[in-house]
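Quick one, probably user error.
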């Protein structure tokens, strides 16, 4: 149902964009607002479809694991429940398997690479002095916390003398 709704929204958006390009000036703002509204609706629908697909994959993975455990319990094995870390690994593997089923190994590599870039980018942003790069051509600036007495960079730092 949602995929059909998404297709309809995309068609409407395409039609609205065509109308926007050929619209007179006095209708341009109104049609531009309509295009914006439809764009947001398409994004919302895509997000909903992707979330439903991801939840379905995760639910299938968990249900198959539960069935296997139920079967083993019937055979006489002690009850076993997944720990959170194992559950996380199982869901991650299921997600990558679903990506591989849709787009192959190349798609999985692409997803992993995007995830790695995203994590490294957030790490870089949170690091202090992240924009200072160390390269052979540019000298590293002094990051000293000591206060200099004069504007001279070469002068030694003077310490305060204790007053008696």
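Nope, works fine. Designed sequence:
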């Amino acid at each position: 149902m949602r995929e059909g709704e998404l297709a309809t929204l995309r068609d409407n958006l395409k039609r609205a964009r065509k109308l926007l390009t050929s619209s007179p000036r006095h209708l341009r703002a109104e049609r531009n607002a309509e295009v914006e509204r439809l764009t947001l609706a398409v994004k919302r629908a895509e997000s909903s479809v992707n979330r439903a697909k991801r939840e379905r994959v995760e639910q299938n993975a968990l249900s198959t694991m539960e069935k296997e455990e139920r079967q083993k319990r019937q055979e006489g094995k002690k009850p076993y429940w997944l720990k959170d870390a194992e559950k996380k690994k199982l869901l991650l593997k299921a997600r990558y398997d679903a990506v591989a089923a849709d787009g192959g190994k190349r798609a999985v590599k692409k997803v992993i690479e995007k995830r790695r870039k995203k994590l490294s980018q957030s790490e870089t942003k949170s690091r202090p002095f992240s924009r200072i790069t160390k390269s052979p051509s540019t000298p590293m600036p002094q990051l000293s916390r000591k206060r200099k007495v004069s504007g001279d960079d070469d002068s030694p730092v003077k310490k305060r003398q204790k007053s008696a």
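Residues 82-126 form one domain.
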